[in-house]
Each structure stands twice: as structure tokens, then as C-alpha cells.
Amino acid sequence: MWFQAAAAVKSSARLRTSGRGFHHDRLHWLANEKQMNDPLIAPGAAGFSFPGCFELTAFALAEADLTTEIPQLLAARELSLLAGALGCRPSTGGKYVSITLSFLCPDRATYDAIVADLRAHPAVKWLL
User: Fold this and answer.
1) 120 and 60 share a domain?
2) What is the per-residue pLDDT across 94-103, written as a single tens digit (0 to 9) for each?
3) Which of 16, 39, 71, 97 is spaced 20 to 30 Å from 118 by Cα?
4) Same domain, 21 and 62
5) How far apart are CA 37 and CA 61, in angstroms?
6) Is the pLDDT of residue 27 over 60?
7) Strand segments (E) across 62-105
8) CA separation for the pair 57, 121 (Å, rounded)
């Protein structure tokens, strides 16, 4: 009886792999994970393409008026929000707000500067 249950588990585990076996799939996943987290890969090597339209979401304290400060931060970098691209949504408890903004960015250095400016703001707790 127990051996039938073990055989059923083993066969169902095989169904979830690529057919080469669990260990092969695990090693393949680890190789991809290492590549994704490798600090030696150039920042602009994959992913973002510039110029492009980007969206950031900042989670901040509700008492800070970031809906007026964010356009000023972008203007300081000679950028502007896309039309209707600033959204604000309060948290359930009302202590935090999520502010989503979309903007056109010419290069990686400017994007990194905007992200650094938002992260440096004292009211911003998280940035996506």
C-alpha cells in the first residue's frame, strides 16, 4: 500500500519536470538564478531599452504631498509626466499612499537618477 502511494508521488513528480529528471531541472533553474543575480552582468545588457516609457510606483506616507513633489523632481531632471500618468491610491488604513507615475526617459543614467531621487525622499518607503 505505502509503495503504491510512493510510486504515485514519484510519477506525478516526473510529470512536473522537463522529462530529463528533477535534478537536471533544478540545475537549470540554479544556472538561470545565478545569471539573474550576477553582479558582473552589465546593467544595460538586457531588460530596459532607451529611450522608453517607464512606470514607477512609490509607496509613501500619506501626509507627504508627493503628487506635487514628483512632477518637480522630474522637472529638475528635464523630464515630464506623460498625460494623465500620475495616479494616487490610499492604503486601507490610510497611513500610506501608492503613487504611480509614467514618464519618457532618454537614457539609463537619467532613469537611475530619478530612481535615486525618489528613494532618497524621506516620505518614500518602497519603490517599484
Assistant:
1) yes
2) 999 999 999 9
3) 39
4) no
5) 31
6) no
7) 81-90, 96-105
8) 14
Buried b (16+ CB within 10 A) or exposed e, 37-53: eeeeeeeeeeeeeeeee
> Is residue 44 in a domain?
no
Where do we find the cell 507615475?
Answer: 101
Q: The domain containing residue 99 runs over which residues?
A: 52-127
Summarize pLDDT for 40-84 with one digit per residue, the tens.
556 555 678 889 999 999 999 999 888 889 989 999 999 988 988
Using CA atoms, how far apart are residues 66 and 25, in angstroms rounded to an integer?
Answer: 46
Residue 6 lies in a domain: yes
Residue 16 has pLDDT above 90, yes or no: no
Mean pLDDT of 118-123: 94
Strand partners for 102: 55
- Per the structure, the count of domains in the chain is 2
In a domain, 66, yes or no: yes
For residue 116, what is its C-alpha cell?
535615486
